[in-house]
Write a structure and sequence with these properties.
By secondary structure, this protein is mainly α. The chain has helices spanning about 5-15, 15-30, 40-55, 65-75.
Length: about 80
């Protein structure tokens, strides 16, 4: 992992979307000691999921530089679509 530049290392390190998603759900639910009903829990998880999904559409910071580095290291596997 350390043979890659910092931009690619950050991308590799932060791409575990499942763990990130679970961490954000835990963050929402840990402040509540109890829920009135199962429906209340489902509603708060639904609203948190909608908030999390909105953030997924944001562009990656410094993407052109990251793409250049990916092309250097993995040029045969990276496909650029316009």
């Amino acid at each position: 992992m350390f043979k890659y530049p910092p931009e690619i290392r950050k991308l590799i390190y932060t791409t575990n979307a499942i763990e990130n998603f679970n961490r954000q759900l835990r963050k929402v639910t840990k402040t509540k000691s109890a829920f009135v009903s199962d429906d209340a829990l489902m509603k708060i998880l639904y609203l948190a999921t909608m908030s999390i999904v909105d953030k997924w559409t944001m562009p990656v910071k410094e993407w052109p530089m990251i793409l250049d580095n990916l092309m250097i290291y993995f040029g045969d596997r990276v496909k650029i679509t316009l």
